[in-house]
Amino acid sequence: EAGVTQFPSHSVIEKGQTVTLRCDPISGHDNLYWYRRVMGKEIKFLLHFVKESKQDESGMPNNRFLAERTGGTYSTLKVQPAELEDSGVYFCASSLGGLAKETQYFGPGTRLLVL
Amino acid sequence: DAKTTQPPSMDCAEGRAANLPCNHSTISGNEYVYWYRQIHSQGPQYIIHGLKNNETNEMASLIITEDRKSSTLILPHATLRDTAVYYCIVRPSILTGANSKLTFGKGITLSVRP
Asked: Is A44 an 8 Å CB contact of chain B?
């Protein structure tokens, strides 16, 4: 079974540019999560999709971040315009959903560097 | 969510058991204890979770005290590849309707020495 995949693995952009990160969850997983770790900080929750609906986006830092999950499959996280403080590692996780099936499995992350 | 407390670091010899402690004294009855680890430059990896009974899988064992205020993750035969940051996370069951996000702390850095 393929795990959670993320693309790209690395991205280097200049301040003010736009970047779009993609996450492909494990097939059949209804729940999809985005987390990030900025330099020197702990991993923080960004948002949670259940299928195509945003269940919780309380962790999104500001309106420069837009997450979508069209069709309830893969998800994208767009940062526009990117700022220096957005640099970090962005992780995606997915879980099957349903009773007692909430174990989240993480992807390898996208390392974003904003110059 | 209940807060967890872990020592910042520990080490153990290769081949020996690694016992990683975690305190979660404010845990409530519907909260699970999860353990993840992050090996350098990789995404967090799920290890094991439990509610009140001890659990064992192919990776590790989880021992939860009777009062549930602390737990220990045991790696029975640590290898060099087990060197990582280990996170103990407490999270409510989805049956409560609570948010299912994971709240990561600083974790404990385990160094396995040859």
From this structure: yes
Residue carrying the six token digits 């280990």: B86
Residue percentage of chain A with pLDDT more than 90: 86
Q: Looking at this protein, which amino acid is placed at residue A94?
A: S
Tokens 């409530």 belong to B28
Task: Give the pLDDT score at A99.
Answer: 61
Asked if the Cβ–Cβ distance from B100 to A91 is below 8 Å, we say no
Tell me the residue length of chain B: 114
Give tens-digit pLDDT for A2-33. Answer: 899 999 999 999 999 999 999 999 999 999 99
Q: What does the pLDDT read at residue B91?
A: 87
Do A99 and B95 count as a contact with CB atoms less than 8 A apart? yes
The Cβ of residue B58 has, within 10 Å, a number of other Cβ atoms equal to 5
Dihedral sign, CA of B37, B43, B48, B52? positive
Cα separation, A55 vs B106, in Å, equals 26
Nearest Cα neighbor of B1 from A96, A45, A92, A89 is A45
Question: Which run of H or of E encompasses A23?
Answer: strand A19-24
Nearest-angstrom CA–CA distance, B95 and B99: 10
To the nearest whole angstrom, how far is the Cα of B68 from the nearest Cα of chain A? 19
Question: Regarding predicted confidence, which is higher, B82 or A97?
Answer: B82
* Chain B contact set for A105 (CB, 8 A): 46
* Residue A101 in this model has a pLDDT that exceeds 80: no
Q: Does A45 touch chain B (CB under 8 A)?
A: yes
Set of chain B residues whose Cβ sits within 8 Å of the Cβ of A103: 34, 46, 49
